[in-house]
Design brief:
With 312 residues, the protein is of the alpha+beta class. The chain has seven helices and 18 strands. Strands 1, 2, 3, 4, 7, 10, 11, 12 and 13 form a nine-stranded mixed sheet that branches. It has a five-stranded mixed sheet with strand order 14-16-17-18-15. A two-stranded antiparallel sheet has the order 5-6. The chain is globular and about 70 Å long.
């Protein structure tokens, strides 16, 4: 089977555990994920099956949306409810204060990756070092929090909906919000509602798959669904053959085609007229320069070819 299967991950198993379970249930070796969810987290976990594993790395960078519960007044080693309690403080905050502090974390922000995370440093996962009692200095990383909506206030808990860029640590957000409020805090619960072009509405549970593996095809999404939102170009067959044979698309090749507005190095998907995904490319020059560029400049640099163009 080829395509994308979104699992509604339960709390407890790791993302790798889910991959192994799907391999077993569907009796399919080629299964991968497009980005992990913490074991305690639930929600949308997109998996790639068969030939869709070729686009896995292109699916991990989309925006995410989470329903999260932040527990104020308690700081933990892991920044979530799985860790040991480090400190407790009384919680004496108002809704107005909570809203004001949440607003401070909307926009371009910097986060220091937590020690209990899968990020690799010095050749090891940070959580492996943390379990050995080792803490190393981490560089802050740039992330974007598009919005934080306060959905419920039931102190010491704060329920929020977070829309953010890939790579955002909601656990770090919970800790930082608690610090700003003066009482500390950690992430109590996390559920991912949206992962790039996929949502929880696309998801199926492992229980459903295990009960009726023969119905799995009904839940598998086409590979193209994973590239929803990626600028695309429809190619005639002769240009498709050119790309499939390893040649690059030049400015002259694109002058008669409908080209989306892209910037330099943006990802662009190439499709054949029959709807087949042919390749993924990077823009060599922005669309705005196509009209004035030399005809022999590389316009789209091929990164990965997925199909062959038919001979006619």
């Amino acid at each position: 089977m080829d395509g994308i299967l979104v699992i509604d991950k339960p709390a407890g198993p790791t993302s790798h555990d889910i991959v192994d379970a799907v391999r077993r249930v569907l009796r399919q070796k080629k299964v991968g994920h497009t980005g992990t969810l913490d074991p305690a987290a639930t929600g949308a976990l997109p998996l790639v099956l068969g030939s869709a594993t070729k686009i896995a790395r292109y699916l991990s960078g989309g925006n995410k949306e989470y329903d999260a519960t932040l527990r104020l007044g308690v700081t933990t080693t892991t920044l979530d409810s799985e860790g040991e309690v480090v400190e407790t403080k009384p919680v004496d905050v108002t809704e107005q204060q909570v809203r004001a502090v949440l607003g401070l974390f909307v926009g371009d922000i910097k986060q220091i990756p937590p020690m209990y995370s899968a990020k690799k440093m010095q050749g090891k996962r940070l959580y492996e070092l943390a379990r050995q009692g080792v803490e190393i200095e981490r560089e802050p990383k740039d992330v974007i929090v598009h919005s934080i909506e306060l959905t419920e206030l039931s102190l010491p808990d704060i329920m929020v909906k977070v829309r953010c860029s890939a790579g955002t640590y909601v656990r770090v957000l919970a800790q930082d919000v608690g610090e700003r409020l003066g009482c500390g805090g950690h992430l109590k619960q996390l559920r991912r509602i949206v992962a790039g072009p996929f949502s929880i509405d696309d998801a199926v549970t492992l229980d459903v798959l295990e009960a009726a593996p023969e119905n799995a095809k009904a839940h598998i999404l086409p590979i193209g669904r994973g590239l929803r939102g990626v600028p695309s170009v429809s190619l005639p067959v002769h240009l498709g053959r050119q790309v499939a044979s390893g040649q690059q698309l030049m400015v002259a090749d694109l002058r008669t085609l409908d080209i989306p507005d892209v910037g330099e190095n943006d990802l662009v998907a190439l499709w054949l007229d029959d709807g087949t995904l042919l390749a993924l490319t990077r823009a060599g020059i922005p669309t705005a320069r196509l009209a004035s560029a030399r005809r022999d400049e590389i316009a789209l640099k091929t990164e990965r070819v997925f199909a062959q163009a038919p001979r006619r």
